[in-house]
Amino acid sequence: MLHLSRLILTAAAGLCVLTAPAAAQKVDNKYREFPALGFKFKPMKDWTDVPVEPRQKRRGIAAQMEAERGPYVKVGNDRLRFDPVLYVIKVDPKQSVTETSGGDEGGEGGGLRGRVDREAAKEPTAKDYVYDFYGQQLRKTEFDEVEPEVEEVKISKDYYAHREMIPTFLVGGTAMDVVFDVWLFQMSDYKMLFIWLYPQEEDIRKDYGKAVEKSMKSFQLEDVVKADVAFIDENSSYEDVLAFHEYEVSQTPGWEIVETPSKKFIIKTNSDKDRRIKDVIKRLEASRELFEEDFPPDQPLKHVSVVRLCATAEEFHKYGSTSPGVAGWFSPSSTELVLFFDPNNGYDMTMSVMTHEGFHQYCHFLFHESEAHRWFDEGHGDYYGAFEMKGSNLKPNEDMSGGLARVPEIQEMLRNGTAKPISEHIRYDHGQWQGQGPSNVSCYAQSFSIVYMLREGMRGRVSSKYWKEEWETIIPNYIKYLSEGYQEAYAEIRADIEKELEDAKKLGAPREIIAQLESRKNRIRVDERTKQEIWNKAMAESWGKIDEIEFEEAWKAFVLDEL
To answer: Which of 400, 429, 453 has its CA nearest to residue 539?
Structure first.
């Protein structure tokens, strides 16, 4: 995740100080289709449909919507804007929620799940579902005492929905009185849960309550449209990967798929800036060529990288629930790279962040999902992020622009004596690296300057006044022993799983156990102790072969004199 420095991004917050009254809520004339779930309904007019992140999908969330400009609520002596939200959730009928429910995430494809007391399992109520979903933002004792307003609402002939209005106190963010307006629709073999959240203030509650009821009464059942490709992995063809993501994107209005010439990327975007998207594709392709040149894979990478390009910063932050200081991120769990267009910085920031996060995405597959030290990951991300397009190629540049600039930060750190000794900085674990200070981007600045000197020295562009030939082996040796260490560990783990699988088959183990073992072969992870041993070996065979104090003195002079 890339953080900014000396740049303030503005994004709509859930609550912000305003003065003018909000308009009455209206229901849209157009239906919002849910082809994968077999229904449609008319949402509120002028609400934003936010794409659902993969980790949210694992909880059964099918859609999330937010009011673009919500009503104003009295909080203390202020009138603050509150943006109401809606979550549409598929409820797994196999999982009961009990009074011990606390909002734990379920497994793949299961629906909303809480912690289950199997002896006291009961048919869940709307309150159970709300607490399962919002538990950390509620005071359980107070919430348990709330008596919901319950009714069965006629939707059509012989079809009813269950509605519960739950007035309560929300402690997440700015504390205030709210209403959870919860609707349950029984489908063929599961339930659809709609959780509307809006202020409890009398006039607002009345306005939203009527509008929500009108919206929910538009609910209509339809035939389910199944995906042609329901599952993909690293062995899937490009055509299957494309079909899978086209179906996924079709579930959120306004989003589309854009292909790239190399077929190494799939872009998901809601932007209508065609020329800018072409610039993104051009830099994506050039970045991949650069990575493959500097870090050639030992075998062709089959994975198709997914890039989600949000049209605005507001949509970007809503999608990932990120703070305004985040400029882009790569998720190892979903393997998705997420960005947004930033016209305030001439789109340069988007391009830099894309290459930075694209390096993380590339290394995720290059090193078979294994972890490297942060100095290597983030230092190279910033190094490549600073590259500039020259024609169809990327060329080195000594720093990124605007709020992403690292050179002023590291120079100030060296002058003030706040930079960490290199021998410590390069051996930090992720937490130590992130918290080294003095600012939240100091770690990035120091790693960037180290990698910049190493990489430019390897390219013959650092004066012999600051450079020694033996330093050219640091990065290659680090990569070599890191990769070899993980491969040896993976081979050992894979052999153990194969033996366990063979024994299970001989003993006639249930099909579910066999499937779990087969799945483990594709999700191999090393334990923390093994990872540290691999890290120590890689450092010993790279940095451990040079005089680190001598390098540090040369690095300090190079940063202050040449950058």
So the answer is: 429
Higher pLDDT, 188 or 106: 188
d(CA 102, CA 133): 8
pLDDT, average across residues 87-96? 76
12 Cβ contact partners less than 8 Å away, ≥ 6 residues apart: 83, 314
**Same domain, residue pair 170 and 25:** yes
Model confidence pLDDT, tens digit, residues 116-161:
333 344 677 889 889 988 888 998 888 999 999 999 999 998 899 9
Residue 409 is assigned to a structural domain of this protein: no
**Residue 326 burial (10 A CB sphere; 0-12, 13-18, 19+):** buried
CA 316 and chain centroid, separation? 10
Q: Which domain holds residue 337?
A: 238-373
475, containing H or E segment: helix 474-506
- How many CA atoms within 13 Å lie on the side-chain side of 354? 32
Report d(CA 260, CA 262) in Å as an integer: 6
Contact predicate 153/163, CB 8 Å: yes
Of 347, 373, 399, which one is at a domain's C-terminal end? 373
pLDDT for position 3: 52
Same domain? For 75 and 165 the reply is yes
Distances (CA, A) of 192 to 47, 92, 152, 225: 20, 9, 15, 16
Q: What is the pLDDT of residue 57?
A: 87
Beta pairing partners, 306:
266, 336
**Whole-angstrom distance between the N-terminal and C-terminal Cα of the chain?**
25
Helical packing angle, 407-416 and 442-458, nearest 10°: 110
Condensed to tens digits (0 to 9), the pLDDT of residues 362-386 reads 998 888 788 999 999 999 999 999 9
CATH number of the structural domain spanning residue 73: 3.40.1000.10
Determine, yes or no, domain membership for 81.
yes
Closest among 300, 290, 296, 305 to 245, alpha carbons compared: 305
pLDDT one-digit tens code per residue, 12-39 = 334 444 344 456 889 999 999 999 999 9
Q: Using a cut of 0.90, tell me whether the model's pTM lies above it.
A: no
In a shared domain, residues 296 and 353: yes
What is the spatial distance between Cα 242 and Cα 465, in angstroms, rounded to a whole number? 52
Those residues with Cβ within 8 angstroms of residue 270's Cβ, 6 or more apart along the chain or in another chain = 254, 255, 256, 310, 311, 315
Cα separation, 279 vs 420, whole angstroms: 38
